[in-house]
Amino acid sequence: MRVHDDAQSTMTDSLRCLETKVPPPLIALVIVAGMWLVTWVTPVVPLAEFVLVPIACVLAAGGMAFALAGSLAFRRAGTTVNPLKPERASQLVISGVYRITRNPMYLGLLLGLVALAVYFAAPLALAGPVVFAAYIHRFQIKPEERALEAKFGSAYVDYKQRVRRWL
């Protein structure tokens, strides 16, 4: 049992080097490239563009609205929007869109990826948003939550209990 715990601890420690190192928009772009490639090598659902485009546009517009609202709320509060340095947060932003989701900018990127998967009409392209959500959860959101809890203490813990991570 001890050997397994040591191996798991070593793996967790080695993965920590990836935490908050790659900008989430860059992760999204890499996933977009993978989704695009998937459309060339897997079957697509034969749906008309007049069905796909409106759905994709609504999802993309919703994603842009969440991302923009989150970014503007940070700027109004005078705190950092740099996801690579969560410890530099100077304010705990819990108003506006942050009453709906703790991560509106990541939610915006996720909705954009879902919109693209719908537009591509390739079922396997839906893996892109799933991979993005898993990566961002492990390597961006979890470290941010640790940093915010260390900085803002019980105020952040209370906020986490009131507002969901995604929606």
Summarize the entry for a quick read.
The chain has helices at 2-15, 24-41, 49-77, 104-120, 127-152, 154-162. By secondary structure, it is mostly helical.
How would you describe this protein?
The protein is an all-alpha fold and 167 residues long. Helix 2 runs parallel beside helix 4 (104-120), helix 2 runs antiparallel to helix 5 and helix 4 (104-120) packs antiparallel against helix 5. The longest helix is centred in the middle third of the chain and has 29 residues, at 49-77. The chain is built from six helices and no strands. It is globular and about 50 Å long. The protein has one domain.
List keywords for this structure.
mainly alpha, 68% helix, 6 helices, 167 residues
Helices and strands, with pairings:
Layout: H1 2-15, H2 24-41, H3 49-77, H4 104-120, H5 127-152, H6 154-162
Q: Can you count the beta strands?
A: 0
Q: Estimate the helix proportion, in percent.
A: 55-70%
**N-to-C order of helices and strands:** HHHHHH
**Terminal residue distance:** 38 Å
**Beta fraction of the residues?**
under 5%
Tally of separate domains? 1
Average pLDDT rating: 92
Shape: globular
Mind telling me the C-alpha Rg? 18 Å
Low-confidence stretches: none
Major beta sheet summary? none
Summing up helix and strand content along with how strands pair, one would put the structural category as mainly alpha
Compute the number of helices.
6
